[in-house]
Amino acid sequence: xAEEIIDITGFSFDGAGIGxxxxxxxxxxxxxxxxxxxxxVIRREGRGRLSADLVRILAPAPGRARPECPxxxxxxxxxxxxxDYATQAALKGQIVADALRSVGGIDAAVxxxxxxxPWFYRNRGQFPVAFSGGRxxxxxxxxxxxxxxxxxxECRLFHPKIIELLKAxxxxxxxxxxxxxxxxxxxxxxxINGAGDELLLTFIMRRREERAAAILTELAAPLKEKVxxxxxxxxxxxxxxxxxxxxxxEELLWGKxxxxxxxxxxxxxxxxxxxxxxxxxMAEKMFSSLKSLLPKVPLLIDAYxxxxxxxxxxxxxxxxxxxxxxxxxxxxxxxxxxxxNNLAAKQHFICGKSEVEIPKMNLxxxxxxxxxxxxxGVDKALWESIAATSLAQIAYISCNPGTLARDLKILQAxxxxxxxxxxxxxxxxxxxxxxxxxxxxxTSY
Length: 445
Hints:
The protein has 445 residues and is of the alpha/beta class. It has three domains: 1-64, CATH 2.40.50.140; 124-263, CATH 2.40.50.1070; 279-440, 3-Layer(aba) Sandwich (Rossmann fold), CATH 3.40.50. 25% of the residues lie in helices and 33% in strands. The chain contains ten helices and 22 strands. It has helices at 85-104, 160-172, 178-181, 210-226, 280-293, 309-313, 328-340, 354-357, 380-386, 401-413; strands at 4-11, 16-20, 26-30, 37-46, 49-59, 111-113, 124-132, 135-141, 148-150, 185-192, 199-205, 230-237, 249-255, 259-263, 266-270, 297-303, 318-325, 347-351, 368-371, 393-398, 417-424, 434-440. Helix 1 packs parallel to helix 10 (401-413) and helix 2 packs across helix 4 (210-226). The chain starts with a strand and ends in a 5-residue tail after the last strand.
């Protein structure tokens, strides 16, 4: 097909450069960045947009950088290593601002708080596995594929101890043992605490098999000798196909089933499935800023609470904290954390849905709702449940600019005004960004 020469003037939420054909139609070019002049070949139209392959850069943008990882472009873990870090942060701010404007009808400048170190920040990983020639291969899925790209010894995103343990698992598993794991073993998950002195290793299998469980248990001792920070090995069973990595059944094979983590003077136990922000350093910066922006309140409602981490961290700015979570296991872990942090008199858990529980409450004047939802955003039923209440303050932590913008539009229709918005780069070298929004409204209830 014929080449097109285009100037790249924009940047999409998934990391593609955007240029325009002579007809004015937008063209999305993965690998291109604003400021590039590029030769491209149009390849396909799908999901309402026209895409092209980048053939060569004729004139590079000032923000271009040489990728530091030899796997960049093959592995799907990073999307932005070809862009220098300051430019990455600016582009992410523009992604948030574009979503606010196009989806939410909101014009706002978005300050992006940058990471001091854009490398080695991820404190947990879920690594898919493959089997080839009688060997175990552990890594990440390739870009837009389900082919496993081995990353042991190469990846610069994860804490070095995670990669060290991942490589040890791959190298130390006896060749004769692999046949007992194939094809049931699906993922290897590893997480590390903030002090860097405890690692938790989890094997995720489609079904429990005695021989496989015995092999993985026997592997623990030599792994501990190789990586002294290893504190526990667990086995998780997930028979279901789909996007969920973990299943509901998990058992301890060796050591302990959760590692201890101190964060902002609070103590938590992290099991394989416990949610915690993937970047401890930037999470602390984000939560510290949030605390400085919020007033003292009589009641903090911590929706989508998980184990109640944010509620515990913000507890000293509220007379009472109610953490609402529908997962019973997370509620049990949260109550233990509350006890360990001497917050039992202040922070309380409700096991249920926020949209069901909040309307039952007698909300005092000045109550604050905190939401930190998954990428799909807040369930519309939650917004409907607070429409006729006296709730007048909301703090929203988002990992998806598109659903954040959608929800802010809904809240504005309910009378809320956007008081503050800023972004925090918890995921350098990737397209992901965390955003904090604070809203308030006048009520007559």
